[in-house]
Amino acid sequence: MSNLQKTLRLFRTQHRFILPLSSVNIRNIQGTVKDYNHSEVRTDIKIASVVTENEDHQYEQNVKDVILERALEFVSQTGWSVESLSAGAKSAGYPTITHGLFPNGGGDLIHYFNIKCNQQLAEQMKLWPQEDLKGGSKVPAKFIENAIVTRLLMIKPYKSTWPKAMAIQTLPNNVPNGLATLLSLVDDICYHSGDRSVDFNWYIRRVGLAGIYKAAELFYLTDNSQENNATRSFVSSRIRDAQVIQGALNLNPVTAAPQTLTAAFVTAKNILGINTLK
């Protein structure tokens, strides 16, 4: 157990509430006393040890979530950094040393923010009108456009610091988390827009949508238009381009597949930040 984990356990112990006597299982206590000199007690001890470990893990996760949420309040001042995590820990009433719970520093804070935004978007999409999702194979372009723009606007409170966040996500330790949240985002958008495909198009749509989102993200950072209309127009144009590619694939999949795969591969490289590799 690390020193940080020991500190958290001590902090938890000092702030633990004592359970009411009525909540204690008397039968279990009697069984333990009865079997005190038998091997069953060792089983009880092992089970208790596992329960304690699970409780400690859950407690640690709860501490992390509280600190990360509070740390977001300091991003505008100190960026996506260890300083924001320390300030978040202090604001939540934990020792500032608990920033050590985040080995990737600001990368973990960005990851938390991305997960939070993805979850919020998924909940919103469940409530959106479903009229645009009807019509057979027709791509619900408006639904996808709204989803991308809605997700981009969640960055607005941190727009000035987001270029740094994007750079942090390209660091080797942060690439897996960044890619995971991006794929989760596009999968949610495809799912809620009615995509239930299980064929080759499943991959093409998601890789293509990931490319559109990352391109729109860069565009949004330089967009100063009223109500971000320029970003919406940009997203709409990229979706139309994707529909043309998808249409070509549907008409002649044998000849279109190699070009589409090449485009998908280049997009994936750009997403991972390895487009300069030879």
Automatic annotation (TrEMBL):
Any one annotated GO CC term: mitochondrial inner membrane
Domain Ubiquinone biosynthesis protein COQ9 HTH: 60-90
GO molecular function: lipid binding
Cross-referenced Pfam families: COQ9, COQ9_N
Keyword Cell membrane attributed: no
UniProt pathway annotation: Cofactor biosynthesis; ubiquinone biosynthesis
UniProt keyword annotations, A-Z: Lipid-binding, Mitochondrion, Transit peptide, Ubiquinone biosynthesis
Family listed: Belongs to the COQ9 family.
Function of the molecule: Membrane-associated protein that warps the membrane surface to access and bind aromatic isoprenes with high specificity, including ubiquinone (CoQ) isoprene intermediates and presents them directly to Coq7, therefore facilitating the Coq7-mediated hydroxylase step. Participates in the biosynthesis of coenzyme Q, also named ubiquinone, an essential lipid-soluble electron transporter for aerobic cellular respiration.
Name recorded for this polypeptide: Ubiquinone biosynthesis protein
